[in-house]
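Z., the sequence and structure:
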Amino acid sequence: MRHSRKLRVLAAALLVALIVPSVAFAQEPEQKQNALTFYKVQETNPLLKPMQASPKRMVTVGGIIDVAGVSAWNLTMGPKHDKLAAAGLWTMTAFRVYLALHNHLNEHRAERR
């Protein structure tokens, strides 16, 4: 009976560890597209800056870069260092939350188009 409870707790923790980063990763690009479409803001990422005229394309490429980064992190760190891999995902999540807040504040400071 104890084993199944530990398994359920681990499964729940894994689910939370997957859902929270997904929400954070999904929120920031949507907010970026909204800011570029309706406000006079500039992209600062050198890989995405050339695509600023097309916000949807830029968000798509940014999403591909994010998925590639998370996948590479999980494939290199996950198999041998599971705690470090989880810590890295939480760090990425915290950075995405920071970016979402930063973009939100920039929207309020910028002029509308």
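Helices lie at 2-38, 55-77, 82-109. The first helix runs from residue 2 to 38.

Let me know what you think.
H.
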